[in-house]
Amino acid sequence: MKFRDILNSEEFVITAEVGPPKGTDVHEMLHAADLLKGRVSAVNVTDNQSSVMRLSSLAACHLLKERGLDPIFQLTCRDRNRLALQSDLLGAAALGIENVLALAGDHPVVGDHPSSKAVFDLDSVQLLKVIHLLNSGKDMSGNELVGPTNFCPGATVTPGAIPLEPQLLKFEKKVKAGAIFFQTQAVYDLEKFREFMDYARQFRVKILAGILLLKSAGMARYLNKKVPGIFVPKNLIDELEKASDSSQKGIEIAARQIQELQEICDGAHIMAIGAEEKVPKILDAAEL
Fold first, then answer.
1. What is the pLDDT of residues 225-249, one digit of tens each?
2. Does residue 242 contact residue 183 with C-beta atoms inside 8 Å?
3. Taking phi first (over 0 means left), then psi (-120 to 50 degrees means alpha), and beta for anything else, what does residue 149 get?
4. CATH numbers and ranges of domains, the chain
5. Percent with pLDDT over 90 in the chain
6. What does the pLDDT average to over 165-191?
7. Is the distance from CB of 138 to CB of 145 less than 8 angstroms?
8. Cis status of the peptide bond prior to 159, with omega within 30 of 0
9. pTM score of the predicted model
């Protein structure tokens, strides 16, 4: 079943992600993807994540598609003007890639090419509008396409942002621009996430809560200190601190979160960041 069809069902949706390599050797990426095959509904392919130059997301999506997975093409506005964005979208459609996650993208100064010029010709809301136009058979200038696209468009939201109001405003704009599903920033405070879901339920979109695998108490503290919109509660940090095997404890915490989220939202998006081999273990522990 396609990702789009699963979204339209009552099934609890599970997605995960893989990062393309910094080079042309795709064996490790494909091995990670193979581990996810049959266990998740779709696989996100990151697009120069954290502004670090890597293999094209579009090329990686094509390789995953050939391998029988349903890829989600992450597309950032950081590196492309409106011509390139539309061209890459048409290329994805021609390759049979139907799912797109529209992102603004991190600024190049945080990556490995800090002197690179940021483009940001469009923002993520405008990119969603472009996807809607291409689906209707027209480009941004109103020109007719020789064959429309058929994308399932998605976007991101940060339920733990402080203040939250700007995120909610952007969320509504993304819904109006055509987003069908949302994958959130990592969620650890489930009570605060419930409050966000009370608001989000007024919109007919699917919300997949982000699950970022915690590998240690140090990682949790780093997230709290350095990553806006993420807050790991003290009780989880204490669990990791006291565990004889913090890696296994991280898997247990992620599995427990997924079980609890089944009563709150529509799915979970698992971000293992280089530890994709642990995703099946998380799903096993969550009894999925």
1. 888 888 899 999 999 999 999 999 9
2. no
3. beta
4. 3-285 (3.20.20.220)
5. 88
6. 96
7. yes
8. no
9. 0.94
102, two tokens: 């529209």
Residue 215's nearest CA partner among 188, 268, 253, 186 is: 253
- Residue 104 CB contacts under 8 Å (≥ 6 apart), including other chains: 76, 77, 78, 120, 123, 124
Q: How many C-beta neighbours within 10 Å does residue 263 have?
A: 9
Comparing CA positions, the residue from 74, 75, 80 lying closest to residue 116 is 80
φ, ψ for residue 60 (rounded to 5)? -65, -40
Q: How confident is the model at residue 1 (pLDDT cuts 50, 70, 90)?
A: confident
- Among 4, 19, 45, which Cα is nearest to 275's? 19
Closest-CA residue to 44 (of 25, 24, 64): 64
The answer to whether residues 100 and 47 touch, using CB atoms and an 8 Å cutoff, is no
Reported as a single tens digit per residue, the pLDDT across 66-85 is 999 999 999 999 999 999 99
* Per-residue 3-state assignment (H helix, E strand, C coil) for the chain: CCHHHHHCCCCCEEEEEECCCCCCCCHHHHHHHHHHCCCCCEEEECCCHHHCCCCCHHHHHHHHHHCCCCEEEEEECCCCCHHHHHHHHHHHHHCCCCEEEEECCCCHHHCCCCCCCCCCCCCHHHHHHHHHHHHHCECCCCCECCCCCCCEEEEEECCCCCCCHHHHHHHHHHHHHCCCEEEEEECCCHHHHHHHHHHHCCCCCEEEEEEECCCCHHHHHHHHHHCCCCCCCHHHHHHHHHCCCHHHHHHHHHHHHHHHHCCCCCEEEEECCCCHHHHHHHHHHCCC
